[in-house]
Amino acid sequence: MDTITIKDIARALNLSTSTVSRALRDSYEINPETKRLVTEYAERLNYRPNPIALSLKENRSRVIAVIVPQIANNFFSQVINGIEAIAYNRGYHVIIFQSHESYEREMLTIQQAVARKADGLLISLSSGTLDVTYLRELQDKKLPIVLFDRVSAQLTSPSVSADNFAGAFAATEHLLQSGRRRIAHLTMPAHISVTQERLAGYRAALEQYGIDYDENLVRYGWFGQDEVEPLVDELLTYTPDAFFAAGDRLTLGCLAALKNRNIAIPDDMSLIGFTNSTVADLLAPPLTTVEQPALDIGQIAAEQLINLIEGKQRDPQPNPIKIPTRLNIRASSK
């Protein structure tokens, strides 16, 4: 089949090409009935904008760059699905980079994205990123930037993330209501935004139930495969009766470590994890989890970025967007 063009749609509907173009862009200048006719006809014939023609006409590449710490993480792969769905529907292509938790690689990948004339950036900061000066400089040059999940208060960019505080509060409260009192918290590096938010939710729940916060029951980990077991051993010396792990790898690593030590879950130890693993209900025992709205985060972040690129949102969203999490209660905490 030949590729359908705006001229073909205009000829078929007896409209001008400029009217069809504005209708497809959802312009306020076109009445709703004409928009409906144009969009329905375009969808029926599977019309897709020509990215090269659009980039020449609009002086834009129609490309957005996404930088994540690691695609293999279930959460980030689901976020990318959300981003790509919105980008495709709005005529944009997506290029994806991984920082592999490295500040240096993050900077290099963003330099590549800028060199490739990406219209904007969607970024979840690496665990190695402490200084965001290079992003502030790009922001000052009017490059549209939206942060998601791991964000920075040092930037005025719009940001989209899960309500980590509420998710951690709900998880800790559930353990407290089930009779647990010494809840160990296994979390990520202290400077990461999601770490701070989840720790705050954990502490707030303890305070509400009259339990003193004990620093001995908190450990900060990175992302290596072999580091979880030693941290679990350290925490076990302080006789916890539950574990709340604040990340995918930490959660699964903690489950494995407890099983390797023949600690019965949930009889001897309850376990809750912050994870978007698709097999949490298939584990033994099925794992209680705080699930992040990854797809929604990706879709909303992409909408925010494209609106900035297209000038539909001239001023960045003044407040961070927080999307509710969901506590899935299963056998590991009952």
UniProtKB/TrEMBL annotation:
Q: Which InterPro entries match?
A: HTH_LacI, LacI/GalR-like_sensor, Lambda_DNA-bd_dom_sf, Peripla_BP_I
Task: Tell whether DNA-binding is among the UniProt keywords.
Answer: yes
Q: Which residues form the HTH lacI-type domain?
A: 4-58
PANTHER family associated with the record = HTH-TYPE TRANSCRIPTIONAL REGULATOR GALS (PTHR30146:SF109), LACI-RELATED TRANSCRIPTIONAL REPRESSOR (PTHR30146)
| Organism (species) | Spirosoma linguale (strain ATCC 33905 / DSM 74 / LMG 10896 / Claus 1)
Query: Which terms are listed as keywords in the entry?
Result: DNA-binding, Transcription, Transcription regulation
- Cross-referenced PROSITE patterns, in alphabetical order? HTH_LACI_2 (PS50932)
Pfam families assigned to the protein according to its UniProt record, in alphabetical order = LacI, Peripla_BP_3
- Gene3D superfamilies in the record, alphabetically? 3.40.50.2300, lambda repressor-like DNA-binding domains
Q: Which GO terms describe its molecular function?
A: DNA-binding transcription factor activity; transcription cis-regulatory region binding
| Stored CDD domains | HTH_LacI, PBP1_LacI_sugar_binding-like
Record-given protein name: Transcriptional regulator, LacI family
User: What SUPFAM superfamilies does UniProt report for this protein, alphabetically?
Assistant: lambda repressor-like DNA-binding domains, Periplasmic binding protein-like I
